[in-house]
Amino acid sequence: MAAAVSAAEAAIVLARTRRFVESCVPVAPPTAPAWTPLPGPQSRALESQADELFYGGAAGGGKTDLLLGLALTQHRSAIIFRREFRQLRGIIERSRHVIGRLGRFNGQEAVWRFDDDRFIEFGAVEHEWDKSKYQGRPHAAKLFDELPQFTESQYRFLIGWARSTVPGERVRVVAAGNPPTSAEGEWVIRYWGPWLDETHAHPAEPGELRWYGVVDGQDVEVKDGEPFRHNGETIYPKSRTFLPARLADNPYLEATGYAATLQGMPEPLRSQMLYGDFTIGLSADPYQLLERRWLLEAGTRTAAYRPDGGPVVAGLDVAGPGEDESVLVVRQGQGILEVCAFGDADARGPVLAALRPWRHRGLVRVNVDTAGLGHYLARHLEDAGLRVRDVNVGTSPTTDDAREKYANLKAEAYWALRERFADGDVSGLTDRTMLAQLAGLRYQHDARGRVVIERKEDARKRGVKSPDRAEALMLAFLPDDPAALRAQVYGLRTGAPRG
Q: What values do phi and psi take at 199, rounded to 5?
């Protein structure tokens, strides 16, 4: 007969049995780690209604976590892109901490899958042609890490399949990144120009929505998201915005002393990573007529009318029917005193009204582009008693030496303006539309080596509108024509009419 088991021995056996059974039963996964955005830019990004959001700027602003958190909590299907596949290693490792045991990760496919059929995919487009691997593959969220490392054509191609078949599911594109460190990434500054380009004519506030439609292959800003018709096609605008983020917005990383690491970087990388500076270190277009730095410096120098400051000169560029403006620029010495833009089909009255105060403040001449409609407005100004200089920028330069250097008077005049900006001899450039137009001017050399200013038609192909304000400024600073000066002197001596 078996010996009786003591109560103590029975308790030990029971405890061992319980531990064995528990080791054979899978432990239920914990409740999903609740990813919540940090207060500030991360939260604003999560709530933003933009179809395309660019987030970031400085290093350490929580860009990677934002992309993972959006994919995990907001969408049923998402893909996160990096330019090179090996660059995904860090974000995949971070995803293991954010997602935890909520899903199952397939390392070979680089996909997280969840019990409710949601998934988060990781992808790379190292070469330009790699983008075609994702053709026709829909995701409700197209997410990009370090966007400036991608080409513009890759980005535009990949977001073309941002869609969902689930009724009511939000479809969005979110891109994160630091300022571009090479010319390849500078398209990002143009694409989000109202927020990132200091020379943009219509700047936007962080988080502000701007709407764009693609018209004849070009992005065109429109007033809202309402569809509109163009050449028999319905255009559906989409919204964009930008939200800046810095290391200070990520207290967890800031507490590690990461700021000291960023401060030790060489310039311009230091300012790009530490402050999210999108303008420093940009490579200059070799055929950009006026450097960005010159234009911004001209805006920091103030200009004001002075009774003893010398003669006042105006430049007038006259527009025809359509969206172009007639523009009047008044300057004294190096200072831009006034910029007036008129959308009127007949600008005679508004121009005369704008010039009236200057007639008693030393206005000596109005330089008018008299090619086309400008001829008639010039005659109207003369009839009102103003001295007018007729200018046809398509004619020959003013001297024999200039004719060897410049293709026409327009090139000569613009090059003289370039030299003024380079010498710091322009002040009061506070009109952002004018600044943007000046920044968009390009030149080239013809077969004889002469300077030629890019035609307006070619500029429009690059998405640059007619530079009416730049033209008026060029006219205001137009150098004196030696032949005209000689004619004026002759007229004073003989009593002949002055031109």
A: -95, 5
Identify the residue whose tokens are 């590690």: 256
Give the whole-angstrom CA distance, residue 149 versus residue 81: 11
Residue range 258-262: mean pLDDT, rounded: 53
**Residue 176: beta bridge partners?**
55, 145
Q: What is the mean pLDDT of residues 370-398?
A: 93
**Three-class DSSP category at 91:** helix
Tell me which amino acid residue 151 is: T
What pLDDT shows up at residue 258? 47
Residue pair 72/120 in contact (Cβ under 8 Å)? The answer is yes
The single-letter DSSP state of residue 110 is T
Contact present, 212 and 442 (Cβ < 8 Å): no
In 362-473, the DSSP E strands lie at 363-369, 388-391, 443-445, 451-453
Q: Are 487 and 499 in contact (CB under 8 A)?
A: yes
Percent of the chain with pLDDT over 90: 55
pLDDT at residue number 289: 93
What's the pLDDT band for 250 if we cut at 50, 70, 90? low
What type of residue is 144? F
Nearest residue to 450 (alpha-carbon basis) of 497, 498, 397 = 397
More confident residue, 180 or 383: 383
Could you give the 3-state DSSP secondary structure of residue 178? coil
The domain segmentation of the chain, as residue ranges, is 41-275, 292-494
Residue type at 340 in one-letter notation: C
CATH class held by domain 292-494: alpha beta
Q: Which two tokens stand for residue 144?
A: 């990009």
Weakest-pLDDT range from 16-30, 174-188, 483-497: 16-30
Q: Which residues of 251-263 are buried (b: 16+ CB within 10 A; e: fewer)?
A: eebeeeebbeebe
Long-range contacts made by residues 286-289, C-beta under 8 angstroms, separation at least 24? 287/442, 287/443, 287/444, 288/439, 288/441, 288/442, 289/414, 289/418, 289/438, 289/441, 289/442, 289/443, 289/453
- Give the architecture-level CATH label for domain 41-275: 3-Layer(aba) Sandwich (3.40)
Distance of CA 292 to the CA centre of its chain: 14
pLDDT of residue 373: 86
Q: What is the pLDDT of residues 310-319, one digit of tens each?
A: 999 999 999 8
Which pLDDT tens digit goes with each residue over 189-227? Answer: 889 999 988 778 788 999 999 999 998 888 889 999 999
Mapping DSSP to helix (H, G, I), strand (E, B) and coil, where does residue 350 land? helix
Name the one residue in this structure whose structure tokens are 């402050």. Answer: 275
**pLDDT at residue 367 tops 90:** yes
First to last CA, the chain: 137
Q: Using an 8 Å Cβ cutoff, are 454 and 489 in contact? A: no
Q: What is the pTM of this model?
A: 0.64
* Dihedral (Cα; 103, 107, 110, 114), 10-degree rounding: -10
Residue 249 CA to residue 276 CA, distance in Å, equals 12
Q: Three-state DSSP class for 148?
A: helix
